[in-house]
Amino acid sequence: MQSRDTPTLLAQETALHDVFLPPSIDHDKLVTGRSYCHHSPIPELLSEDMSMECVLGVDEAGRGPVLGPMVYGLLYLPLSSHRSLLASTHHFDDSKVLTPQVRSRLMQNLCTPSTDLFGQCGWATTVMSARDISAGMLKAAGTFNLNAQAMDVTIDLIKDVFAKGINVREIYIDTIGSPQTYQNKLSRIFPTTSITVAKKADSLYPCVSAASVCAKVTRDAALEVCYETYRRRGSRTTEIEAPQKGWGSGYPSDARCSSWLRRNMDPVFGWGNECRFSWGTAKDLLEARDGAAKIDWPDEDDDDSMRVTDFFSATTGDGRVDQEMSGWYGSRVPAEVF
Predict the structure, then answer these.
(1) Closest CA to 200 of 228, 168, 172
(2) Threshold 0.90, pTM exceeds
(3) CA–CA separation, 285 vs 169, rounded Å?
(4) 53 within 8 A of 167, measured Cβ to Cβ
(5) Closest CA to 92 of 204, 252, 225
(6) What pLDDT digit, counting tens, does each position of 126-140 carry?
């Protein structure tokens, strides 16, 4: 049963039709289902003094949806400006409690050269495509689960910032799994930095709040770009809705999303790169009685004793070897010819 707050939460998670398109949006990679990273330029204040001590926050958006990418966001700025700039001046908070309009405006300020946020804050995102998430989770030889994928992305994002020469002294991260286990692992990788991994870090630490805004606006814009593919090629529905009316927030609990999946399921291929096929919602629809086309795959031959040359000869009914293919590439020439 959905709680009374569910409609409000889904409205908060649904992208604006005219969401700000940040530079972290790569149209070609999104529509082809590729994961990628984006880093903003080093802010001017820091580039003038690379020894300045900084604080860094990391958070994600889109962990639960069946549609669209999961995005990890990172933001860093001078330690001395942490709370005064982000919390007091610009009122950053967990992106889930900010309206889509406020999130979009804050992200636009981060990307506008004339603003104090642009001058003091650097940020980065990693877009984990639905295709790559599913490929990891559905691996035949050992599952690469979502927590493991997320941890690898987080570590790589932080390493990239250190590689730029940023003097990061404190790191705050919203947890995945056990906070202490996650914190211990990161402390071994970044031993010279104070690291705090906590539940609800996006509500406790302004740099994590700002990172969550970077992640959420990038995901919102990515959903808009992915939906454009349906506008261009047409849909199995009679009318092409805006994404917020079509597939909604992309969450399985969103009736707009589940209805869109049913209406637009191809009987052979299911959906496009925007869908996480490893999610139970997608699996159930594909395996339903009136769902996808049923395919019988032939059993693979378990006999590993065959040689390549066996494909060029066949045994006749009386046991003799048919050499019909043996001369396909010509006959062997003896050494004496040369």
Answers:
(1) 172
(2) no
(3) 48
(4) yes
(5) 204
(6) 999 999 999 999 987
